[in-house]
Amino acid sequence: MKNKGILTVVSGFSGAGKGTIMKELMKNYSDTYALSISATTRAPRPGEVNGREYFFVSTEEFENMIAQDALIEHAQYVNNYYGTPKDYVFEQLENGKDVILEIEIQGALKVKEKYPDTVLMFVSPPNAAELKSRLEGRGTEDAATIASRLSRAWQEAQGVEKYDYFVINDVLEDCVKKVHAIIQNEHARAFRNQELIDTIKNELKEFSKGE
Ligand code: ADP
Ligand code: 5GP
Fold first, then answer.
1. pTM value?
2. Which of 36, 138, 149, 162 is placed for a possible disulfide with 14 were both Cys, Cβ 3.0 to 4.6 Å?
3. Cα(169)–Cα(126) distance, rounded to whole angstroms?
4. Atom of ligand 1 nearest to the CA of 13
5. 3-class DSSP assignment, residue 188
6. Neighbours of 27 (CB within 10 A)
7. CATH number for region 7-36+97-208
8. What number does the ligand 2 atom closest to the CA of 102 have?
9. What residue owns the CA closest to ligand 2's atom 24?
10. Is a pLDDT exceeding 90 seen at residue 48?
């Protein structure tokens, strides 16, 4: 696979602030990034719009997408399906956009296995009490769902070392700057610049002729 854009997966405990960070990133650097919109069988939260936060689909529709190989990956998270539609991601990478998937850990690891050049980034609040208070403060889930999400957070924490980067979301603005800097620095990695390296090598070869 040869793409101009970089594929980044952002994961993090529910309530860590991923959605908030993504919104800021898209607001500040809209020309640079494309945010993939996942399909899910979970119900929309108040204020969420079909086709903006997610494509909200039935279980049957989701299973059809799996059967048609229309998803890069999919996973189950607290009793619902979530998955990444393929076409948009590859179109945007071809257009030179840095594409971000905001997905949970099982999906993240599947993407990395399929596309090893993917950057895996884990976002965390500064501590567990802050996580609980952000989840409660968001006010979008009932107490039982919050408890499931916190218990899932403990499970997800076991896999954090598999990520390339671990970013603390304490002061939002600092975190957004850091996420942007990490992804942009990735463009300078030698292995992502092989074509340029080959061109320069060839040009230099001309100089060395006749020496
Ligand atoms: P996630 O998408 O990871 O589940 P959200 O983006 O919905 O998390 O954030 C969870 C809650 O925490 C929201 O109410 C959001 O406004 C708040 N939040 C996000 N980032 C910060 C931050 N840096 N400091 C304080 N509150 C935050
Ligand atoms: P939420 O219900 O809070 O929007 O999302 C629950 C979890 O599902 C989050 O960890 C989120 O990152 C993850 N998620 C969202 N979309 C996808 C997806 O397409 N694939 C996978 N594997 N996880 C997703």
1. 0.93
2. 149
3. 7
4. 3
5. coil
6. 9
7. 3.40.50.300
8. 12
9. 103
10. yes
Query: pLDDT tens across 128-145, in order?
Result: 999 999 999 998 889 999
CA distances from 208 to 30, 194, 197, 199, 202 (A): 44, 21, 16, 15, 10
Q: Is 14 in the pocket of ligand 1 (CB under 6 A)?
A: yes
Distance 117 CA to ligand 2 centre (A): 21
Instruction: Outline where the chain has alpha helix (H).
Output: 18-28, 59-67, 86-94, 105-114, 128-138, 143-157, 172-186, 194-208
Q: Given CA atoms 123, 127, 133, 136 in this order, what sign does their dihedral have?
A: positive
**pLDDT tens figures, 163-174:** 999 999 999 999
- Decide: 16 in ligand 1 pocket, CB within 6 A: yes
Starting from the CA of residue 42, give the closest ligand: 2
The ligand minimizing its distance to the Cα of 19 is: 1
H-type helices in 158-209, by residue range? 172-186, 194-208
Residue with the smallest CA separation from ligand 1 atom 9 is 17
For residue 209, pLDDT beyond 90: no
Domain ranges across the chain: 7-36+97-208
